[in-house]
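Researcher: Sequence recovery benchmark, item below. Answer with residues only.
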């Protein structure tokens, strides 16, 4: 099975993926890691802004599904995977060619996500709610090679609301989600 995770900024996608990998033994690929590899080879710092620019350029030059195609080519048959950083509808289309692919949209209320972002204190994160909202709009294009987070969310098979306040509660929620997936999709 391949579980894809998409979702809004600071919704907890990476935390969900880390738990799936740790607890269930899934392999993990991030579409952003493909971009980071290209940036590293060109000596470019992997800031959030640079990742967005490089990702948009890679899609424009090589087709909007290029990152998904690259990751799919790395996968071994018979192994379960979790894929993160799915940010374009053509990436979803490419991944959905696999019958064992399930896309989960991870989301949380905007106020919860903004507070998470402030706590993690990453360089380059917006400092105000207004800038946070502006960044989200920038990542939600509806056409072209830029990020299309709203469209990818609309293409998801399941939405998982991650408004948990602690890690153990989140893990229990993910366990319940994966049990439901195994009952309904496998």
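Model:
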């Amino acid at each position: 099975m391949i579980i894809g995770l998409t979702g809004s900024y600071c919704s907890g996608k990476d935390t969900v993926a880390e738990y799936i990998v740790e607890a269930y033994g899934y392999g993990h690929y991030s579409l952003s890691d493909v971009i980071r590899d290209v940036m590293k080879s060109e000596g470019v710092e992997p800031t959030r802004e640079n990742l967005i620019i490089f990702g948009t350029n890679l899609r424009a030059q090589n087709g909007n599904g290029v990152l998904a195609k690259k990751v799919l080519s790395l996968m071994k048959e018979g192994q379960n995977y979790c894929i993160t950083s799915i940010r374009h509808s053509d990436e979803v289309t490419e991944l959905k060619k696999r019958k064992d692919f399930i896309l989960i949209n991870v989301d949380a209320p905007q106020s919860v996500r903004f507070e998470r972002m402030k706590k993690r204190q990453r360089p380059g994160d917006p400092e105000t709610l207004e800038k946070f909202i502006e960044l989200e709009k920038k990542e939600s294009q509806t056409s072209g090679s830029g990020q299309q987070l709203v469209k990818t969310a609309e293409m998801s098979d399941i939405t998982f609301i991650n408004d948990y306040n602690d890690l153990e509660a989140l893990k229990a929620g993910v366990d319940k989600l994966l049990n439901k997936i195994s009952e309904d999709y496998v």
